[in-house]
Amino acid sequence: MNLQALNLDNLEADFFKKNTFIEASAGTGKTYTIQHLVLKIIGDLKGNSLVLDSTGKNSPVKLDEILLLTYTDKAAGELRSRIRAIIEEKIEDPNLTPEEKAVFEENLQLIDNAPIQTFHSFCDRVSHQYSFETNNNTSKELIDNKEINNVIDRYCRDTWPHERAFQELVQNDKSFDLQELIKNTKDLLNLYHPENSPFEYIKIDAKKILSEAQKMESSFDFEFLKKINFNAEKMLRGYGPKSYEKDLKKANNDPQILELLSKLFLINNKTQDDLDKKYNNKLLFLNAEVPKIYEAWANYKEKNSLKTYDDIIEKIYTHTLNEGSLVKPLRNSYRYAIIDEFQDTNFFQWSIFKNVFLNSKSNRLIVVGDPKQSIYSFQGANLEVYKQAISEIQNGYRLDTNYRSSKTMIKETNKLFHFLFNHPKEHALFKDSKSPDSNDKAIFILEEKNTGIEPKENDALLFIDFENENRYAEECAKQIEFLLQHGEIRNQDKKENIKLGDIAILSRTRSEMTSIERALQKRNLPYTRYKDDSLFNHSIECFNLAVFLKAIHSKGNSSREQSLKRAALISPFVGKNLDEALEFDFDDIKDPLNQDFLLFSSLIYEKKWTNLFEMLFLKTKIEDRLIKENRGIELTSYKQIIEYCLEVLIQKQWPLDSLIQHLFNLYDDKESPLGENSNIIAKDTDKKIIQIMTIHASKGLEFPIVFLHAGFKGKSTNISGDFLKNQDPLDNNKYKIYSKDTHEIEKNKSKKTTIEEHRRLFYVAMTRAKHLLVLPKLPEKLTKDSPFQNFLYETLNSFLEKNPYPSVSNFKLDKSWKHNQEANSSFDLQKKLLDLNIKFTSIKEGVIQNSGALYTKSSSYSQLAHQQLNHSELGRENKSEEESPTENPLLEIEDPEEILPKGAHFGNAIHNVFEDFDFSRAKDLDLNEIPQDLLRMMQKHFEAESLEYENMEHLRLSFSLIKNTLLAQLPKVWQDTQDTFSLAKLPVENQKKEMQFNLGLPFSEQIPNWFFNGFIDLVFIQDSRYCILDWKTDFLEDYSHQSLEKAIYQKKYSLQRALYTYTLVEWLSTLIPDISKESIYEQYFGAIYYVFVRGTQANTSKAFHSHRYSSYQDLVKDLDTEVLSKLKNIQNKGHFNEH
């Protein structure tokens, strides 16, 4: 359909007298268009250009007579604000007549109560305002549709086992899966309606198929049939899977033959009874059960005086049919309806708009949308309904100028979108977007600093080659750091450096975010997840709190109640291990924990809810525990869930047992939280740091730079369970239900539907970028997992074949570069999340005040060793940072065997292997027959570091290092004897790998103003003493005691040794508070070990450096020498940042 471009400054005279649709591509200003259309409608003082009113006369339209609908509360609020602003601006126009000014001032007074809202809010408002006309019981409680899951589960549990049809299903199908059948039932119920049942169940009829096959054989002279010596009856008697696959390939996608072959293979050697048992009976069962469960759901709501939004919409729909009771009052209330994001509409919504506005002489409908951005089918949006609607509206325009993106971006994405929307049956065929003359911003890259070389303009599209997801994430993080160091955004004479907040990273699923977050952490690049809504759904914090509340709410001390309490004992609120929980004596009334349980019970009995949660935090010390372990985000979640619990208990006056069940249901996603934003984790919303979000969440947003981090995970198709449902091509509101293994053609249709939505999803992702878009160049081996991967691979590779773009090449990173003050301050907002609740045990007096400004300084061992400082870090440093060949001469020494890789990547891989390896397996590890699970684990870490993960020689030698290290003998240096032990015999419960620490160090007197954080490779217990171990992969000339001592001091590991030992003693002092640190050191500290793994040998102490200070005083003295003196030196030189 060729649409005329909409020109707001030169609208056709009868524009507002027609129903109209406007197709608005991304960035073309549809919100701007809507607000100006509203301004023109209310600005027509006599209504000459408007539709005639119900009396057939010209009359003006006021703002409260324009219904403005969109699909989120946020969008509605933004639209209201923009309309307010444009009216206020118009009032200041000196060219207005007094009469015109009075009209706009009158409409400005209406803005707060104007009907600018979501579709659900509109329906809720109508159902209350016209409760008599709709027979609406306003006393019914509005609930979420998810409650239907409980009704289905109860029905299936209580009713199905007694039904003969169900019993036969179970008996006749050896692979019967009850959960899959329940899932199928829930899927169909989402579409079912008794007055207009949308389903046609397609059975398999062997006789019919055979008859069709014989007709084809006799009626058509197919070359293909001759090739395979086609004979229907013969094929039915012996058509094996290999022949079937071979014939499918020969069919050359002929739809008739594909369908025929799939059916023949399906009924191969089967009677009709066989087919009924395997396929048809399930279809018949669903056909009978879905209406029954729908009725049970309706009865449940009626009995409990409940209603859902679907019920409200259904009533409004019913009362707008055939000039129903709602049509006239709605037409009288709203002369115009303007609907935004119309591509996300569905059958019921469109039917209401059509019945009220489209079929009226005195009302007009304007819909605005972009079919290329229809990505919410999982929420009921139906693009086929959109297509039907615009065919009925008929009068259409398009917005064709992209005001969001730079000229270069528009030019390059126009070319890419032609590849994206080249499907001949896709309605939303792409048409080039234009660029306004004023928008010529672009990204410029300055390769080298202070050279006088003019920076060059960067391409708007960048492609990154990679081997796997982790590698791509690392390259993205590296590219981000490069852009922050060298990039500028320029517009004519203006230029500004690229900032963290200019960058967004988009993923298709939340699970894809993990690898990019890890890569950003590695480079200390601050980020936040946009609108993280995981406060309840599968949140371990929600589950733990529910378990603990259920335990303290139990009223007795029976074995059942004790089981509940034992579950609470292993939660973070108590923190016992399983053995301790099983051995705990609940009858010992003197035990402080039992006394705490009694206190909690009394507060529950008295319903002192605020006191209950205060005492829960005070007695369990969960806050202190989580802070020490640097688990501040978890602590924030617990506090927000508790705030939610208090609201439910106090304001809603729910009983505690109802709240507990509610929490479990929220965790299982069987219910929704009360309140619109209750499921959003409270977090900093400042936009000065990198934003990570799903593509769906990004819709409506824009960023200067966008990285697409998607296509790594996903389902194989949109087919789930035993069935697939496809829209009836003759009626878009009806669905045909098939057994998924029975119809090859329908399977292909379902796959194509998935690909079409992926195409639109990709379009949304790409159109978020204003100046630069970074895309993955997927290797072919990664395209097997999901259609989205296939789609990306085929689309981008086809595009690159005809439009060659250089992949990201090696570039120089400035190692001395640090985030500027703006970046650092936004980075610390992650700490501000916890506000005053975060009080590190070692920082008891808070932070220093300096010149009236609060500040702390932050560092890590590696930074201190190189006399550099930075602010608090998001995650673990690159463990091999201190091992870079360019920074230490020891690393230039060649490995005598010249076999294993050198450098940081190998060091990282070995560290990660030690982290994942079960030490007890070292003894029986056969290097000639390495177990597959260990081999895969090693290969995974090698691949992540871009090492040769298929080189078996490297893998065996690496496992040899692991085995030698774990079977080596470590000296017990706290003893006078020569006793030793091996790491392989350490019980797993006595190991803490990758122990994170946060430590405040005093600069003067007892007030700390230095804050350190980092990870200790291993903390373990031997002979009731706590020991530290650090893995080192350095190359040394030899691994004698003298060489190890030399490496320790040359590489400043002595500084690390003092810092780690002091950190461990400080940590132990919080666990054992009643004795001095001197005594803790003497009685509970063992030693610190440095393991140079390239030189270890089993049953010896070779390549192990061990150290224990003679006393705690010596440790403090060494700390002052090695650490505090360097900090003082750095401070005196001014090498630190304040905030």
Short description:
By secondary structure, the protein is α/β, with parallel strands linked by helices. It is 45% helix and 14% strand.
Question: Would you kindly provide a written description of the structure presented here, covering whatever features stand out?
Answer:
There is one protein chain. A hairpin with a 2-residue loop joins strand 20 and strand 21 (731-739). The chain is 45% helix and 14% strand. The strands form eight sheets. A seven-stranded parallel sheet has the order 1-10-2-9-8-3-4, with helices on both faces. With 1139 residues, the chain is an alpha/beta fold. Residues 424-428, 449-453, 682-686, 716-720, 820-898, 1003-1008 and 1133-1139 have low confidence and may be disordered.
Looking across the biggest beta sheet, what order are the strands in? 1-10-2-9-8-3-4
Task: Give the proportion of residues in helices.
Answer: 40-55%
Structural class: alpha/beta
Rg (C-alpha, Å): 34 Å
Describe the largest sheet.
Answer: 7 strands, parallel
Unreliable residue runs: 424-428, 449-453, 682-686, 716-720, 820-898, 1003-1008, 1133-1139
Per DSSP, what share of the residues sits in E-state strands of 2 or more residues?
5-15%
Measured between the Cα atoms of the first and last residue, the distance is 58 Å
Counting H and I runs of at least 4 residues, what is the number of helices? 42
| Quantity of strands, as a count | 32
Mean pLDDT: 77
Taken from the alpha-carbon principal axes, the silhouette is globular
